[in-house]
Amino acid sequence: MRSSDDRVYLAPVDHLRAVAAVLVVLYHGCQLLSARIEGRRFVPATDWLYSANPAATLVFEGHTGVALFMVLSGFIFTVGAYGRPVRYGRFLTNRLLRIYPLYLVVALLGLATQVTLPTFQDLLRILTFATPAQPYGGVFWTLCVEMQFYLVFPLLCRLLAERGPGALLRLLAAVFLLRALVWLSSPAPEPHTASLYLGLAGRIDQFLLGMLAAWVYVHHRDRLRARWLPPVALALALGLLWSFNQVHGFVSDSPLKLAWSGAEGAVWALVVAAYVAGARENGGGRLSRGAARLGEISFSVYLTHFMVLTVIGEWGWFPAALPPVWAAFAVTLLVALPLTVAVSFLTYHAIELPFLRLRRPYTGAPPTAEPPRPRQRESYRGR
């Protein structure tokens, strides 16, 4: 799986990374800049954007790119490590080499925007990703959730290999039940679900569903290659996001939101498995290569786009002939996204890539099959 199939496997994964990164940039651009055009600070409860158009809701609910990233994390690591022993220390070291260098640069630059000298508590918050109040820190919470998942992934991967998908399905059911009990036991008259959105307690479904998608991909890849499956999976994702937008799901504290993480993760897991499995039939033209390159630098896009949007918001020029939402979308698509890609290309090669080259393989050789035991004499006598 790790040799001859790598070229087939990595390109479609990078395509999906690119989609996730672009969704997040468009989402933040439309939501934040449209409020900025109208001269106010964006407040989700009152300024959230809604539309009956499914294409528009895909952008307005583009935070779903985070869910896609998390499903991809579970999928990628499981495909690479399934059936192999994971060296825990190397695995975590590789994860830190992947995340920490660029994150520290962005976080420290955000800290430099303050007029006071940084304190020890400020530095401690940076080391633990607890810096959402920074001007560029709106996405740091996802890194904290990712690191929490990395801590338990080797155990979950071994559980999947030894006990099968049923073990993860039972874990999913247990997490959902415990999450509902926590919500029901809250003393608040209308319990908030924001902590479930921002923490592993509400996001582990998406990692687990990514792992389950990887198991299906490894064992039933041929069945996933039906041509109708990717468009059907994408239609389900669009329909779910449209429904979520219509019921004002992001700002709602409805008990139905307890199941949102799992539902969102399930449709993206289906999209990931179907798209990657069908990638053998996909062309390798310029569009594919360009999307793969964008996916390769998607982490830089994710961490730097807030900087670009902040500069554009302070710059304050927007096409006056367009309604605020359309103006924000146009500026994000035509200005913010290209600038972010340009900045990310530089940060990837200057900051990320040197550390990525320090990573070492973290999986051992798959265990050899146990030789068949010789039959006992009693078995011959029984014949």
TrEMBL record:
Domain Acyltransferase as annotated: residue spans: 13-347
Residue ranges, compositional bias (Basic and acidic residues): 372-383
Coiled-coil annotated spans: none
One of the GO biological process terms: polysaccharide biosynthetic process
Domain of life: Bacteria
InterPro entries to which the protein is assigned, alphabetical: Acyl_transf_3_dom, Acyltransferase_3
Pfam short name (any one): Acyl_transf_3
Cellular component, GO, one term: membrane
Parts of the chain that traverse the membrane: 55-79, 100-120, 140-160, 167-184, 196-216, 228-246, 258-278, 299-318, 324-351
Region (Disordered): 364-383
Keyword terms, alphabetized: Acyltransferase, Membrane, Transferase, Transmembrane, Transmembrane helix
One GO MF term: acyltransferase activity, transferring groups other than amino-acyl groups
Protein name per UniProt: Acyltransferase
UniProt source species: Streptomyces ficellus
